[in-house]
Amino acid sequence: MAAAVAALVIGLPVQADDIRATGDLGLVVERETGSLLVVDQSDRAAIGRIEGLGDLSHASLVYSPDERFAYVFGRDGGLTKVDLVTQTIAGRVMQAGNSIGGAISDDGRLVAVSNYEPGGVRVFDADTLEMVADIPTGSKTVGLVDAPGRRFVFSLWDAGETWIADLSGATMEIVKIEGVGTNPYDALITGDGRTYIAGLFGEDGLTALDLWDGAPSPRHVLPGYGKGEENLPVYKMPHLEGWAQAGNEFVLPAVGHHEVLWIDARDFHETGRTQTHGQPVFAMARPDGRQVWVNFAHPLNDTIQIIDTLTKQVVHQLTPGPAVLHMEFTPRGNEVWVSVRDAGKIIVYDTRSFAKLAEIAAVSPSGIFFTARAHRTGL
Amino acid sequence: MAAAVAALVIGLPVQADDIRATGDLGLVVERETGSLLVVDQSDRAAIGRIEGLGDLSHASLVYSPDERFAYVFGRDGGLTKVDLVTQTIAGRVMQAGNSIGGAISDDGRLVAVSNYEPGGVRVFDADTLEMVADIPTGSKTVGLVDAPGRRFVFSLWDAGETWIADLSGATMEIVKIEGVGTNPYDALITGDGRTYIAGLFGEDGLTALDLWDGAPSPRHVLPGYGKGEENLPVYKMPHLEGWAQAGNEFVLPAVGHHEVLWIDARDFHETGRTQTHGQPVFAMARPDGRQVWVNFAHPLNDTIQIIDTLTKQVVHQLTPGPAVLHMEFTPRGNEVWVSVRDAGKIIVYDTRSFAKLAEIAAVSPSGIFFTARAHRTGL
């Protein structure tokens, strides 16, 4: 699109070949340089770079429903709106001092950010980035996700509560759920938007909420899952977005052990364990659920293992290179893109033959985000 | 985009406001006029019309991975490639005399069409529309779907077989499964691409194949489901794309009765029935699985009923108007678009308040297809 846009700006004729639709594009976070690499899945290539994003440590992003704009959540409190078509920054606000992720409402009209300092959630108009709601919580606020019905769900580290903010009506309504547990540090929502699961730093186990219930009550699940007696620091606790749903089961990284756990998606009972190469960071299910790809914590983070869902056995192992930080499947699962930070590249693999299809240069790449996320809940 | 494209062609500068991304677009089949209405979900509006598609009776379409192109399968054997950006026909071939649907491979490179006459499947290069494979079957060929791994699956009406064509390697491989049942007339594949289910015209029940099995064997399921003793004509048999998966269950139209059936998605045993206003045609699950929207056969086809998944009770009823033919949810389920053929319009509803949000004029609209289908298996 870069060629097309340049021509548009100076008024030259543009060939049809210069038009590039956005359904197969993506963004790769380049943390050290505060930039985003724009990539094209079909061409297996980088097609541009957007700079000036600020501090992109642990940055994440969401997409607008038309797959044209991304909203990038920086650790420094910056909320940046990026235009994939023109490959420019369309808007940027410093909305807090220290933030920890965001979400977009199911209708694509509202973008929410959760903040440590000042603690709470702020909601912005997706078009203008004007603030439309401020929800102070008096606590570090974590685990923010979107839920169906123009709702956002998030948890309070200090208070051990989960709040549901409903912005579907003329006035915002907030449901506060107490007794979620000691120091929730992260959360996920299932792909159907029904179940919210919070990880706990201050005790073992996790807390599940059924959002289909008008008044959800906390349910303690996986009582053996957590920091246990090892007293791990927060940054060693697994990110819950590292959970994957594969068919009828969730696959999740064990805490502090070289294994992944399998649990039944209906009732959360454990159905198996698979020994792995190292301490898993992400266990990502291929979209059809037949395979789970796992990467590992330092110093074993040069490796990926592929587990077959039916047998729960490791069926293949790859060594992409130093510091494999993230993996993103193409929407229908035929390929996977892997960021290898310290090799300065992204590697594209065929998920069936495991053949390497392409390498793409990138500056210290971390998170990879394809635009198909626009159409999913909780991504 | 029309304005932008016109400017491109004659070399005038284009404003950023003229750019329109395709992630929230869709096409509505206008059967009588052989045209497609281009619609924008975010604007809840028609933004153009593409004409010259030929016979669009029972037409369906699939999208390219970049959500720019649609491949339209006409009943007259026409395969037409449509460009959503320029709103023009990008290519068209008459590939057979009488065809019945198509599919696109998971990598987006191949488009397949199933034909009655001559019976078989033909596979085309998605870019050029050149034929790359011809698979004569000696039978009317139905129930064509795409499956992960560059495969197409389809069934033979006359032979009672299902074939799996694998185009992932240098040479095409075909697995033929016999004993599928008498006169398969339609089929579906589950969203994870694992289970292929064929409906049978010549006997009661359906046949399920587990595509994760290297050598799938036919499994007879729902033995009471079918034409029974009523000897219904083929056109009265329910289209299997009218099945919906809602959470842990499938919901499907009963044959010849005013009810929908609920079956367990893991083992296909019946879990319940819901009495309905008429004989159901489509039972469509809202993407979060909490609601199922049902429309009905003539003469009760002015009505829609909404069923709650938890209680299996009808919770709301709407009367959009004469001949409600199809419903399509926005990808995250906040809205649903309904084609009301004999009222010449599409109606957009909020799926929670059931409020009517918009009406859009269309010429005898039938199928509605949003571009988000590009990222899904079997759609």
Give structural notes:
The structure is a homodimer of 379-residue chains. With 379 residues, chain A is mainly β. The first copy, chain A, has a domain at 58-229: Methylamine Dehydrogenase, Chain H. Chain A contains 1 helix and 32 strands. In chain A, the strands form 8 sheets. In chain A, strands 3-2-1-32 form a 4-stranded antiparallel sheet, with no helix packed on it. In chain A, strands 4-5-6-7 form a 4-stranded antiparallel sheet, with no helix packed on it. In chain A, β12 and β13 form a beta hairpin. The longest helix of chain A is centred in the N-terminal third of the chain and has 9 residues, at 2-10. Residues 1-17 of chain A have low confidence and may be disordered.
- Per the principal axes of the C-alpha atoms, what is the gross shape of chain A? globular
- What share of the residues of chain A does DSSP label as strand, in percent? over 45%
Name of the CATH superfamily of one domain in chain A: YVTN repeat-like/Quinoprotein amine dehydrogenase
Most residues in contact, chain pair and counts: A-B, 58 and 58 residues
Properties at a glance:
1 helix, 379 residues, Methylamine Dehydrogenase, Chain H, mainly beta, four-stranded antiparallel β-sheet, globular, homodimer
Give the SSE map.
The structure is a homodimer of 379-residue chains.
Chain A: H1 2-10, E1 25-30, E2 35-40, E3 45-50, E4 60-63, E5 69-73, E6 78-83, E7 88-94, E8 98-104, E9 110-117, E10 120-125, E11 131-136, E12 141-147, E13 151-156, E14 161-166, E15 173-177, E16 184-189, E17 195-200, E18 206-210, E19 219-221, E20 244-246, E21 249-253, E22 259-264, E23 270-275, E24 280-285, E25 291-296, E26 304-308, E27 314-318, E28 324-329, E29 335-340, E30 345-350, E31 356-361, E32 365-370
Antiparallel strand pairs in A: 1-2, 1-32, 2-3, 4-5, 5-6, 6-7, 8-9, 9-10, 10-11, 12-13, 13-14, 14-15, 16-17, 17-18, 18-19, 20-21, 21-22, 22-23, 24-25, 25-26, 26-27, 28-29, 29-30, 30-31
